[in-house]
Amino acid sequence: MSVNHAPLTPLALLQRTAAVYPGRTAVVYGTRQFTFAAYRERVYRLAQALRTLGIRREERVAVLAPNVPMVLEAHYGIPWAGGVIVAINTRLNAKEVGYILEHSGSRALIADAALLAGLEPIARQLDGLERILVAEDPDAGQGPFWRPPGAQDYEATLAAADAAEPPFPVADEQQSIAIDYTSGTTGAPKGVVYTHRGALLNAVNDGLQNGLDARSVYLWTLPMFHCNGWCFSWAAPGLGATSVCLRQVEARRVRDLIVQHGVSHFCGAPIVLQMLAQLAEAEPFRFETPVRSATGGAPPSPTLLAAMQRLNVQVTHLYGLTETYGPCTVCEVQEDWAGLPVDALADRMARQGVPHLLAGELNVLDAQGRPVPRDGKTMGEVCLRGNTVMKGYFRDPGATDKAFQGGWFHTGDLGVVQADGYIALRDRSKDIIISGGENISTIEVENVLAAHPDIAEAAVVSRPDDKWGEVPVAFVALKPGRTLTAAAVIAFCREQLAHYKCPQDVIFEALPRTSTGKVQKFALRERLWAGHASRIQGA
Amino acid sequence: MSVNHAPLTPLALLQRTAAVYPGRTAVVYGTRQFTFAAYRERVYRLAQALRTLGIRREERVAVLAPNVPMVLEAHYGIPWAGGVIVAINTRLNAKEVGYILEHSGSRALIADAALLAGLEPIARQLDGLERILVAEDPDAGQGPFWRPPGAQDYEATLAAADAAEPPFPVADEQQSIAIDYTSGTTGAPKGVVYTHRGALLNAVNDGLQNGLDARSVYLWTLPMFHCNGWCFSWAAPGLGATSVCLRQVEARRVRDLIVQHGVSHFCGAPIVLQMLAQLAEAEPFRFETPVRSATGGAPPSPTLLAAMQRLNVQVTHLYGLTETYGPCTVCEVQEDWAGLPVDALADRMARQGVPHLLAGELNVLDAQGRPVPRDGKTMGEVCLRGNTVMKGYFRDPGATDKAFQGGWFHTGDLGVVQADGYIALRDRSKDIIISGGENISTIEVENVLAAHPDIAEAAVVSRPDDKWGEVPVAFVALKPGRTLTAAAVIAFCREQLAHYKCPQDVIFEALPRTSTGKVQKFALRERLWAGHASRIQGA
Predict the structure, then answer these.
(1) Do A168 and A45 lie in a common domain?
(2) pLDDT per residue over A138-174, tens digit each?
(3) Whether residue B80 is found in the same domain as residue B132
(4) What's the ipTM?
(5) String of b and e for B364-399 (b: at least 16 CB within 10 Å)?
(6) Residue B282 lies in a domain
(7) Is residue B243 part of a domain?
(8) Quick check: B335 and A385 CB within 8 A?
(9) Separation in Å, CA of A364 to nearest CA in chain B
């Protein structure tokens, strides 16, 4: 900090907002509400508690919880202690969580009581953590839940901690603020590192692009563990928006919260919008004031857009990856689209679009690294560079170098550029399925299948799905003389993988191979996607 | 530029906006209109012309013009050549302009034809410039105007230049982008240096704080030479807003342009709002859609706020200095002010408020550098630090060090902090008068007066003024046996100073002194401000 230079960080936003709007509601959850003054105090107490524990600059603290207020507190409290938040996907199983705790080198874990109970299978590993804080939630269903010995109560820890503002922990804006684990092409999830600078710029863009400000009310339908809620976990409190927390996304509850709290913004995969659309079919309703919703992971369909227009929900289509702090492109709606029929509008809006205001450069490059022509036909890989590309993969310089080859971040997504410069995705080069907005590594699933004693080999590919966008399907070749049912294969997977990663269907047959012996996953995918113009649902 | 780091600069915003909205109107002036594609091409051509001239990184190019499209082009075109824009106050006289050209070391000048003619008295100095570009304006009244030999036509220069995108000129976000000359406490104006990083962050804040985006239409009532139009000269084109240019601020024209072009935003000193209010008294009108107006330089009065409510103009009160890229605070309107009667609302809105979203830290410090209590009574100096404080004074490390003493930028403004943390100005410690939003150095005026053969000594202080906020008044002691009229003193000043700097009134008397012989300017001011609660108009 000098007279004319301060590190860019979301923490400065919260300092300002809490000072300017101390009495405004920062967080709502069930019957609990915190003002910004109270929220900031809880953030400071959490940071002080972590400092007392000895958390130092860039040390990791993991968080495992649904969208309850504690996670929003952790997004500021952990960095305010100088630490790095590792928000873990709540749909992972105990073993998968264990891998992330281990790989991130997390020194502490803050967990929702109900979810912590699910970690009993890795109880011994949890012993290695220096501190476990348990946040009880009366809305979580009946307890008491199992908890590891020595785990401490989150509320009691906060109450016992110093409420004073901790020393400002950001010396350098390139300091890490978060690590987000994502399934990549290789089986093991990779830790994507975010910096304070990148998080601030994305949070600011969330405000600019969505009109989020101190009059907004933001509903937490998007998981906070998912790219830190596309950086809204910093943007909403930082810009003074009220956060309405939500343990579970359920259509009636979403509708009621929007009405009850005057929600102005929410985000999520199209499935969240679909839920609302279906509910409105059964019980017609329309929001009195317009609600803005940013959606990504799959493009919104014409049917969905039309339904949202009826509900008074204004949809923005975004695209991004964990490696880009969430959204890096936005399908900007042009003024002359206003009069279009919904089909034509949906056609335009299905595209991933253009880089957001602070995202830097976007390009679709051919194999030689040259930009493809704007013909809507020539495919290339979607590549990015700028301030909102990750710092790198945690403890994986090889993977980082590979992703950054040639001076661009390679998304692994294949697309075209249309005449107006908007990109449209067509396929993925990586072995990734995106289901309900979450990445699934097909190789990770194949590795599990290959370990089954009756399976000779397996290939996992995506199949289009109206609800989830895509779902994984397994092609399995059995060892000679063995028999297996699809249900048995799925059950086997569920023992080792989060349920959403497991095949929805199993097809038993010999796998097609290339002349060099490589499994033709492409050919398998073509069969499941017959009749679809592209190989990404809705695109 | 690396994969995950790019210099923060407004240039990146324009690149994106021109790519996304090529057909949208970027600039309107009279019957001329440019799309963003055309505007970008003109920016590129200007940059290429300057590159051909040999302008290199951080070299200065001066601009002298009212709010015509050329100035908006120069704000991007000069930096795109790597240069630094020096936008000169159009109200200065030839000698004053000459000082700035000299001190800034400007290598070229781009000037409006009518204003360039006013520089005939410094014709010899202009010979020293390597290039003078003249922008003709059919709206400027009858020419032909005098122009220095060798001056070239701006449009012809653009037409002859390469239209290709120049190489990206920003290697480091701390690179200078502009120098703005401001009257300080010492007589000579000082050059305030802005960086690309600071300009980007202020431009982004303009967007966040005012809801300026690619659906906005911005009317140029605020001079672009004034803190680069509070950085709106980068924000408006950068964020995709249409700029409606305006050679001269005249009430009927402002009203008509707002209606004709659907203006959504404009900025300026309260005098601009006053003009509209007066017009509406004579010819009642009300804008159909709300217009947002940010005002600064003096607080809006209750009468003015009430008038603006009737016109459907939503007023925001800002405060800042040239040294803070324009506004650094905003009087954020709290939700519970909504029902207030206009007097009570104006009372709250008259305060300078809180730092803007990206302004960093604001403090009111006592003589020992300690924050004053929040009692609304204890005065201290308003101090700031953060990314939107200037890089420094150009070629004046002594003045820079002094302004940055103790790790804070010292504004020279005295104020209090109220219970809610909002600051309110009460006085200025520096010898500055702010008249119609422009700084006047009393010492500069005193130096001119002291040079008069009949004047023994003189002191210049401010007097409240309903139209201009404040105006300068001179107290003059004559040499024994001499006589002078007020009119003669004012005429003498006008020979050497811009008219707005000259005393509006002259009072002949011996000057009151302290026991140590120092002129008691404070006592003189007290006489002129009797009956006012503070020593700044409206505060």
Answers:
(1) yes
(2) 888 888 899 999 999 999 999 999 999 999 999 999 9
(3) yes
(4) 0.89
(5) bbeeeeeebebeeeebbbbbbbbbbbbbbbbebeeb
(6) no
(7) no
(8) no
(9) 15
